[in-house]
Amino acid sequence: MAKPYEFNWQKEVPSFLQEGAVFDRYEEESFVFEPNCLFKVDEFGFFLTWRSEGKEGQV
User: Fold this and answer.
1) 41 touches 51 (CB < 8 A)
2) To bridge 25 with a disulfide, which of 4, 37, 57, 59 should be the other Cys (CB 3.0-4.6 Å)?
3) Using alpha carbons only, what angle is made at residue 46 by residues 59 and 41, rounded to the nearest 5 degrees?
4) What SS3 class is residue 53?
5) Could you read off the pLDDT of 12-36 as tens digits, one per residue?
6) Hey, where are the domains in the chain?
């Protein structure tokens, strides 16, 4: 009989990413470069949001 596999998908997200950290964002397909974007990750590491200077946040 096979041993059941316990899949632990949830990884700990560092607090600095949950609170927000500033990174540069680059999009390869359209060659868009946005410096100093505020990135945040939810506590489960599922949603990544960012806010560029003068623009709305995106998911």
Assistant:
1) no
2) 37
3) 70
4) coil
5) 999 999 999 999 988 888 888 889 9
6) 16-51
Q: How many CB atoms lie within 10 A of CB 29?
A: 5
Distance CA 42, CA 49 (A): 8
Amino acid at 51: R
Please, are residues 37 and 26 in contact by the beta-carbon 8 Å criterion? no
* pTM, full prediction: 0.64
In single-letter form, the type of residue at position 9 comes to W
| Dist CA 16 CA 3 (whole Å) | 38
CB atoms within 10 A of CB 33: 9
